Structure formats: structure tokens, C-alpha cells
Amino acid sequence: MKAIIGLGNPEVKYLKTRHNIGFMVVDKLLEKNNVTLGEKFQSFFGKKDDVLYLLPKTYMNLSGRAVIELMNFYKLNIKDIIVICDDTTLELGTLRFRKDGSHGGHNGLKSIINLTGSSDFDRLKVGVGPIPENIPIENFVLGNFTQDEQEKLNKVTSLAAEAVEEYLKTDIAQVQNKYNKKHY
């Protein structure tokens, strides 16, 4: 069993913000696989076959609460999850799979690491950067994508969903070799 966890914020006002790109990628997967969501584990939650889909409603900074509930209920190992999140250090159109690592200042990843006690989980970082000069990071990640970015956003979220499906069928090394680069 694998859990795909998209990070974001649940309110409508955050729907199209850079911080919600993890939600956007999971939404593409849900649509493609015809999965409907209910509410469980402080999240929007769905299951199809041996794949679990989780969009925490705990807001970004407390994402670990929902993740640990899911892991405890399904008796998942840290290696059974993949987390999809935004990365401001990567340019929009860039994907980067990682096997493990630090939170790199990302509060959603920090919460998951703190509550699970491990950073040894797979993740897909989706570029939303670069941050323009003189804009605080909080304002940037909670800001909407520009009109010019919309076309690229649709392409990269679709590609990220395709990459996650391939990840589920193969392994992280294979998808790293194929997808870890700027695509658009």
C-alpha cells in the first residue's frame, strides 16, 4: 500500500496559490483514476486499490497531524508515503523527486518530519519559483499564479501526476532519472 500526500491549504482562497501545487497534482491523479474523496484523518481522503490519497485539511504548517493519523490507521511505514509539495528554489516547470532529506525550510515537510520522527520518505518537489526580489516568501507562496504562469502550471501538474503514477509502478531512481529537470 502506498499513500500519496499532497500538501496545501484547504480554504477556497488558497485554491490556486503556489503553496497548493501539491493539492493540484493530487487532484489530477484523482480525476485520472476516478477517485472520489471523503473526509477522514483531518483530511480529504480517498482510496483506490492499494493507493491512498490524502489532502490534509490541517493547513500546511500542521500537515504532519493528518499524515501520522493515516500512517497509524493503515500501519504504514515511512517508506510507504510520497509527499508532493511546492519548492520555491526550483523554477516553475521543474520537478525533483528525492528519497529523503531535510525540510529545507518547508513548513509542511517540517511538520511531517517532526511528527513521524523521520525524514526518510520519498517526495516530489514541484517548482514554483523563483521568488522575485523584495517579496516576502509567505506572500509569494500564498499568492496566486499569474495569468502567464497558468499554461505552464497545467502542463507541469499533469506531468507531475504522470510521474507519480510511473513512480508507483517502478521506483524512485527510475523516475529521478527521467523527470528530475526543468520541463517547461
Provide a descriptive summary of the structure in words.
The protein is α/β, with parallel strands linked by helices. It has 6 helices and 8 strands.
Tell me briefly what this model is.
This protein is α/β, with parallel strands linked by helices and 184 residues long. The chain contains six helices and eight strands, in the order E-H-E-E-E-H-E-E-H-E-H-H-H-E. The chain has an eight-stranded mixed beta sheet with strand order 2-3-4-1-5-7-6-8, sandwiched between helices.
Observed structural traits:
184 residues, alpha/beta, eight-stranded mixed β-sheet, 6 helices, 25% strand
Q: Strand portion, in percent?
A: 25-35%
**Lateral strand order in the biggest sheet:** 2-3-4-1-5-7-6-8
Report the count of strand segments: 8
Mean pLDDT across every amino acid position: 96
Helix content: 25-40%
Alpha carbon gap, first and last residue: 32 Å
Topology pattern, helix = H, strand = E? EHEEEHEEHEHHHE
Shape: globular
Compute the CA-based radius of gyration: 15 Å
Total number of helices = 6
The main sheet comes to:
8 strands, mixed
Low-confidence stretches: none
Q: What would you call the structural class?
A: alpha/beta
